[in-house]
Amino acid sequence: MAFHVPRAPGFQQMLKDGAKNFQGLEEAVYRNIRACDELATTNRSCFGPHGMNKMVINHIEKLFVTNDAATILKELEVQHPAAKMLVLATQMCEQEVGDGTNFVLMLAGTLLKNAEELLRMGLSVPEVIEGYEQACDKAVEILPELSCSSVSDLRDESCIAKALNTCIASKQYGNEEFLSELIAKACVKILPPASMSFNVDNIRVSKLQGSGILASKVVNGMMFVRSCESNIENVKDAKIAVFTCPFDMLATETKGTVMIKNATELKNFSKGEENLMESQIKAIADSGINVVVSGGKVSDLALHYSNKFNLMVVRLNSKWDVRRLCRTVNATALPRLCVPTPEESGHCSIVRQDEIGDRNVVIFEHSSEGSSVCTIALRAATDNVLDDLERCVDDGVNTFKVYTKDQRLVPGAGACEAELGKRIQKFGEACPGLEQYAIKRFADSLECVPRALAENAGLNPTDVVTELYATHQDEKKCNFGVDIESGEIIDAMEANILDSYLVKHWGLRLATNAAVTVLRVDQIIMAKRAGGPKPPKQQGGGDWDDTDDQ
Question: What pLDDT, in 10s, does the model give residues 207-221?
Answer without folding.
Answer: 888 878 888 888 888
